[in-house]
Amino acid sequence: MTQGRGLVAITGANGTIGYACVVHALRAGYRVRCIVRRESAIESIERGPSLQEFLGRDRHPNPEERDGQEKDSIEFAVVPDNTAPGAYDKALSGVRFVVHVAGVWPMPHYDPDTEIYEPFVKSMDNILQAAKKSGTVRRVVFTQAGAALVNPDDGDTLGTDMQLVLDEHVQVNPSVATMHPPIPSPHHAYCAAKARCMTHLRSISRSCQDTPSSPSPYPFSIIQIIPGTVIGPSELITSPKEAKEKMDRMSKAVLFNTPKPRYLFGFVHVEDCATVHVNALDEERVTDEELRKVDWLIAAGTSPVGWTGRDVWGEAAEMVDREFKGEVQRGVFEVGWDKMPINMPYRVDSTRTEKLVLGGEAMRGFAECVREVAEWYLGLLKLEQKGEGRG
């Protein structure tokens, strides 16, 4: 483990991507400031098995095991309202890097303007301003979404042929990028907010590239990452019931024959997703010069040229039927052979990201991700049957 890489602030640290980034950053030698919205989230994070070795003697459950570590490698900041002016000023004080993961899922009962669109846009602005005020931040990573690439008004007409390519130069949907409140639905608001943030941040980066002699408005580099659907085990989940409830929609559909998900913009193992985010902070590995050659990084597994959505889904379904035959026969799993997402317009090609950030190592494919989720679920089920479940 490399020591002394500096302090990185991670928003949404109790979420799926955020928590995985916390673990990966600590293992990579960074100190981490976890930014959450509620005090209760701190306790949840601190219970994480992978974080125990990074807790100091005063908080570790077995202080005698902390001979070489008196202080935590982890600290916390609570930002209840990330839309408030100056919301992140204190939270980013003294940090060297920022990974901004926190966001809002477009729940049907949310107000499209005030509870989805504005939080995304205002929190982005607050991160930029706080990072600038800090005087210490050198690089900011923003987690984005494939939802910015499509127009919700197209409905479920995008098909599953995967004729479009989602790579480091994929284009944001221009109609959605110009959408402003009032916005008709939560789904519209989510797509519009992501599109607005992505185009705004890209314009900042491009203005610096186009006029290199002019001073940058921000004294740090900006990286945007588009992840696919995040798939994989979570050590914060302790029962098979909770695992099934919180499992990603793709794995749930193929393992339990649940309703079809609506969209798929690629897929990524949670650990691969975290690795892309954290490795992107390394200014020697990912130089500013290399960043000028791409619009964003893609955290999603590459699909073979010529494959359709049915090929991707079929490979995973066949794997479940073959490798978990006993569980399928007993009804533990029910293969969702035809439950592939309704809209799969993009074939992911993340080879450039893999070369730049992962040293050429390929990210895991959908079938491999689902296999790990299935094994994780069965492990929790076995522990429950033995009466050994945690929590």
Describe how the helices and strands are arranged.
Elements lengths: L6 E5 L4 H12 L3 E6 L2 H8 L27 E5 L18 E4 L11 H23 L4 E5 L20 E3 L7 H4 L8 H25 L10 E7 L1 E3 L8 H7 L2 H8 L10 E3 H10 L8 H4 L5 E3 L9 H15 L1 H5 L16 E3 L2 H7 L8 H20 L6
Parallel strand pairs: 1-2, 1-4, 2-3, 4-5, 5-7, 6-11, 7-10, 8-9
Helix pairs in contact: 1-8, 3-5, 7-13, 10-13
Quick recap:
The chain is α/β, with parallel strands linked by helices. The protein contains 13 helices and 11 strands.
What can you see in these coordinates?
This is NAD(P)-binding protein. It comes from Lophiostoma macrostomum CBS 122681. InterPro entries: Epimerase_deHydtase, NAD(P)-bd_dom_sf, NAD(P)_dehydrat-like. Pfam families: Epimerase. The strands form 3 sheets. A 7-stranded parallel beta sheet has the order 3-2-1-4-5-7-10, sandwiched between helices. It has a two-stranded parallel ribbon with strand order 6-11. 38% of the residues lie in helices and 12% in strands. The radius of gyration is 21 Å and the shape is globular. Strand 1 (7-11), helix 1 and strand 2 form a beta-alpha-beta unit. The two termini are 30 Å apart. It has helices at residues 16-27, 39-46, 112-134, 174-177, 186-210, 240-246, 249-256, 270-279, 288-291, 309-323, 325-329, 351-357, 366-385; strands at residues 7-11, 31-36, 74-78, 97-100, 139-143, 164-166, 221-227, 229-231, 267-269, 297-299, 346-348. The longest helix has 25 residues, at 186-210. It is α/β, with parallel strands linked by helices and 391 residues long. It folds into 2 domains: 7-228 and 264-304 and 344-360, NAD(P)-binding Rossmann-like Domain (Rossmann fold, 3-Layer(aba) Sandwich), CATH 3.40.50; 236-263 and 309-343 and 368-391, no CATH class. The protein contains 13 helices and 11 strands.
